[in-house]
Design brief:
single chain; Rossmann fold; six-stranded mixed β-sheet; globular
Amino acid sequence: MAVIGANGTGKSTLLKLVAGLLDPGQGQVTVGDRTVSAPDLGVGFVFQEPRLLPWRSALGNVSLPLELAGWSASAREARARDLLVLVGTDDIERLRPHQLSGGTRQRVAIARALALEPGVLLLDEPFSALDALTRERFNVMLQSLWRRTRTTILLVTHSIPEAIFLADRVLVLAGRPGRIAARVPISLPRPRTLTDLDATLVTDAAAAIRAAIEPERSPGSEPPSEEGVA
């Protein structure tokens, strides 16, 4: 699922609530059959910036959650190596973050988030700092990664094409506090290719998403009818 909307509508706050980094003011957040009340090892989080530890190698950064969870050195090293292979960065395991490109650092961050096999992966605009061509390649990589892991992904993005390419459903948030202004299903078959973004149904989906977002951006216009998130 992708979440899209204007700045200030609560997209990143929603991810922090799901991750247990914030307490809801009212109501509750559940992941599967569990009520979220604290940070959960079953939820992985990838931020807009990779936030890697500069004094650790790529392998050491990926293995950090395993170390904190009490895995043996040999087990966490083997798991971290497998994850670097999964995200296509197995040749940089001994390099430090400052020796890596921005895109490679983000791959390492994704591998780290998958270390404990989370049931839910939260992505907060993870590719926004990349150039357009690299971002497209990463979208294809993320789709391939999802097909192999089948981890539930909740993606926050400002990019309508990215939301359509990756998601099965797009939620448009509007207002302050945020409300669901629209739910847009994406019926593109999988696996998807970048040429699929030229399809007519993609144009229709993009138009529906923009129609829900635009009232937030147009001074003097009436806001869309809103539906509570809870």
